[in-house]
Amino acid sequence: MQNSPLLRVENLKVEFPTRRGRLVAVDDVSFDIAPGEVLGVVGESGAGKSMTGSAIIGLLEPPGRIAGGSISLDGRRIDNLPYEEMRKIRGKHIGAIFQDPLTSLNPLYSVGKQLVETIMTHSDLTPTAARERALALLREVGIPAPERRIEQYPHQFSGGMRQRVVIALALCANPRLIVADEPTTALDVSIQAQIITLLKRLCREHGTAVMLVTHDMGVIAETADRVAVMYAGRVAEIGPVRDVIKNPKHPYTIGLMGSIPRIGRDEERLTQIDGSMPRLTEIPQGCAFNPRCPLVFDRCRRERPDLIDVGPFHQVSCWKYAEGVGHA
Amino acid sequence: MADVTAPPGALRRFVDSDVFYSFRRSKVTVVAAIVTAIIVIGSMLGPWIAPHDTYDVRSLNLLDAFTPPVWSEGGNPSYLLGTDDQGRDVFSTILLGARVSLLVGFAATLFAMTLGVLLGLISGYVGGTTDAVIMRIADIKLSFPAILIALLIDGVARGIIPRDMHDDLALYVVIFAIGISNWVAYARTVRGSTLVEKNKEYVQAARIIGLHPFTIMIRHVLPNVLGPVLVIGTLGLAGAILAEATLSFLGVGVPPTRPSLGTLIRVGNNFLFSGEWWMTIFPGVMLVVLVLAVNLLGDWLRDALNPKLR
Amino acid sequence: MLKAAPSRGKFLGIDKDARPFVRVEGLSRYFDVSPPLLNRVLEGKPRQILKAVDGIDFAIGKGETFSLVGESGCGKSTVARLVVGLYRATDGSIEFDGHDFGRMTTRRAMAPIRSRIQMIFQDPYASLNPRWRVREIIAEPIRAYRLLDGDKAINARVDELLRQVRLTPADGTKFPHEFSGGQRQRISIARALASNPEFLVCDEPTSALDVSVQAQILNLMKDLQRELGLTYLFISHNLAVVYHISDRVGVMYLGRLAEVAPARTLFRQPRHPYTRMLLDTIPDMDMTGRQRNPVAGEVPSPINPPTGCSFHPRCPFANDRCKVERPEPIRRGEAFIACHGVEEGRIPDGPIGTAQAA
Questions:
Q1: Model pTM?
Q2: Which of B40, B215, C66, C263 gives C246 a disulfide partner, CB atoms 3.0 to 4.6 angstroms apart?
């Protein structure tokens, strides 16, 4: 992780102006992704994880907008680019996979036409060569009989097969980074496992970095190298996936891990975090988690904590770990 | 947030709502609403605020016939917009005519709405053969122009009703004719929304506790399908006013003794080329302004209630 | 016109003489998904029958939690809707506390049973009427069954219910949209409890919720079960949730039960190849580095299910018998398995290496 990062997000802030004031959906979020690394971004609905992903690929839904901070790809700022230039980067350097494969595919064109068109936009291959490449991609993502399937339309594919096509589409231009937003949520458990295995294999083989946005800790545990846990628009904890899952530090992460039922663990009650994530209009002062935190003390209600080192590459935004202050 | 004991009242919730917010933001809509309100209130109070009682034949003075508007040469200050061939005050006839137009428009729309919503609810909720029958009737109805159906009904009614009762019943015949030719839009929309709502889990939850289907339709489904109905209703009101004007212009609408805007335009039309333009232009302008204002309101309502455009 | 396969009644997992609280036998529900008559005549298309549920047997004891688990399209939600009477069974019987609920045809006949069975739905955003205040939503079953007289008594009962699901009486005056997903699910539960039911059918009650909220709801459901002696039929696709909440589990595949066993037995020693594959798809949260073997292939269309054992096209152990003969359930200890391979003893224990390249 010493070499220069592929993606660097610094102090990113995403706002939604509404008539009842500005809502801050992503607040002062920073992280890096190294080449070939899989960063999991996990959080519950409303945590701002998808919004962070949309900001990076330049597809924030208006009226949402980037209100501060910067996003750089390979040292080049991409958060302030005009739409057309961002569109080129999106195809060539950043691929995107969404929850619902149907939103990424045009229902009116055959799968092959969409693949060939994307390949030809980002390379100078001839149509015949582009078609060969499309077939190779379909084969690579595990679609049986690609010679026949390439002529078919998205609706003729099942959900799992469609998501495979979307992955092929995202890989067309050999991007350095893929932003995958809940890629398996809409799929059945057995298909989920297939898609995760596929994504892992492809990224290893191509050296593609992945920002994997999901609410599913299981998917993160299986796939990610590092994980960022988000809460109320902020990063609560970030670190190597093993450390965060096996030895979580932030009270929220600890509660989150305890609330996941596990097979083989016979517990009468699950760990329960009382209350719910605050609405964007009601984010409390200080640490956003303080009203639900079992370890809350005075400073948490007054001051907002920054990320504090608790181990190699492992950082937590919690006052409990600040120097000198009542560590457990 | 501290005060949780008192639930916000309906008015308070309305003023706070997104719908009211989008209303205040759109100047055109506010103007349209004010214009509509002035016309509706003015015509409701017509019999009391109109300077002349044009229904009372005895008060008419034939010598005042064909007086031009006040600002023209030969205008008479007591007749603001001039008089017609009988010496009736045009301003007063417009006030009273708008009243008839609005009455027919509202009544016909309400009739079409009730019929359409009811049939749509039943069609969507019950489904099967009932649905097929109702929707085929709607299809057949749609293959005739609305005005043709209204004319047909009017003609049939004239054949059935005794001649001396024509004028008394004409108003109801027009309301029925316009209403019956406009229910399909409501029925189709409500059927569509009902099909969506009936599969929602709150309807299933009501079915589980064994409520009668009719109770579920009225108490659960109906309140949730009324949004689009309101939009069609507003746009339909403009349409119904126009339809009444058309019928009256063709001479099959309301009788000339109690003229609507359409009747006024028809009567005035005869004198348009002889130079007495005010008799037809002023009712015409009134009709255009009224229909335009109501349509603008309907357009706004459609956008405000459509979550996709918000 | 739709005739179902004869019921077998071997999956009940209880003594023949015992009278279980809920007893479902040979339950089937077919849907006619044919194209409209005109299209059939003009295009020569045949009638198409979807066998959503195809001959299912199970029993639930009083105070027990029985779960049905399976992938989408396996028919588990249809079973839930059959059991509460939202759908009419094509064949088979549903007995509730000795009454044959499935055969009752009129609303009047069903009324006394109905108040004892309630349902909790998946989507907390669709299961509450958005135009009603929470108090009215919760009071609806009380009024429908005329359980209490007078607004005062009803209001007091609603307050009690709100407290029971850890909300406050003041919440009753609000509208559903003012609540979060988890709070709405609490409201649904309060409403379901309003008629003092003994049996709750829960159709994916936590699938639409975040994990921390899911934990709250699962804890609440367990608390309520203990306090009120409730019996649950729990429908879910989430194996970890099912393991946590269930006493016994039935695994469904394409409208049939593949395996029924006590929860611990099922998860410790899965026998049916499909159960094993499902367990293999669970992400490894303990980071043991276990290599996962995803199930190859996808669930076939239930309109034209495979012949014989419907799992045979995806099963690594399938032989010719599996392709033609529908397996009958057999007993192994406390577990019931419908699999020729298990019956013939040709399926090895331990993990199955079925993974083809994903």
A1: 0.86
A2: C263
